[in-house]
Amino acid sequence: MKNPRTGLSWIDGRPPNAGAAAKLLRGLGNGDIALTHEAFHRLQPWRAAGHLRELLMSCGVLPLVDKQICSFERWLGEYLGGISIPDHEQLVRRFATWEVLTRLRRRAAREPLTPSTRYFASGQVKAATQFLGWLANRGRPLDTCCQADIDTWHAGRGEHERGRLRGFLLWAMASKLARTLRLPAHTVTRNAPLPEPERVALLGRLLTGHDLPLRSRVAGVIVLLYAQPLSRIVRLTVDDLTRDGDQVLLRLGEPSSPVPAPVAELLLAWIGQRDNMNTATNPNARWLFPGRRAGQPMHPRSLGALVTRLGVPTTTGRTAAIQQHVLTMPAPVVADALGYHPVTTTKIATQAGASWSRYAPGDHSPPQPRRTRDS
Fold this sequence. Notes:
Blueprint: H1 4-12, H2 20-30, H3 37-41, H4 46-58, H5 67-81, H6 86-110, H7 115-137, H8 147-155, H9 159-174, H10 196-208, H11 214-226, H12 230-233, E1 241-244, E2 247-250, E3 257-259, H13 261-271, H14 300-309, H15 314-328, H16 331-338, H17 342-352
Helix pairs in contact: 5-6, 5-7, 6-7, 7-9, 10-11, 11-13, 11-14, 11-15, 15-17, 16-17
């Protein structure tokens, strides 16, 4: 560390968790705490334990495991211990272990998990517990749940609660733990996009507002210009910003997107003065927005709070940006360049009435005249 005093202060500890780091380090040193991920799930205070675990992973002492899976497993152990009905605890444990955790690990093998993915997984486990309790109050175990129960439960719940329970019901039916039941169709609602004049005005304010925090300005510009969600923005690295001659490019998909000169100046200025680079956690971080935890970028909610403080609506602003892109370019091109699924951009283009909605991806160069034997 450039300033070892900071690390020593952390080890010494301050209220309310005074000495927690020293106690954990001492436990590892004398063997009271096993050097395994399973042991860290049970340690308290969990924030200090989580911070230490990430430090140990970053320097190769513990094997790398996705941070969100570590957090979910720690939470799951505590949550299952609070379920008072043994049959319910067993069902929820099976669902969480063989369905939810398996899906999280499969996804983590492809790409880093986001906090929102973990929150949704936790919500599925909670919804399963609540539904089993609701059924018990009606005098029914899961294997006798009928269509009338499903219809009654869904009629009294919003779309969010319905979506959280859907995974458990599908798993229960596939595992022969419940009868075959008909579930209501899943619908997705979206907020109306930010009006285009407001999006352009906000972009201008961020680019010229030199008195505003630089980190927040950079993140806000990426939302409003490139339609990126915060969960993806925090995963960007300084290596995603490249040069092609005089042109600066930002790699969000393939090909990389050109960066206008004012935005390029903003990004390059931020790279030279990023926060959270002077501690033991991220001394050589490549993250565009380094976090305070070892090897981790900023939390999307933390960055989102900073952006929102500048008056940038992250959700409707992103929706407005992607809508503007599909109005000016073919939806498949937008999907490739900005890292979206083609189906998503095609739906947005259709809703926006884009003239490109009939565009087919592929080579659209004009056909070459055929050569004849005499030519």
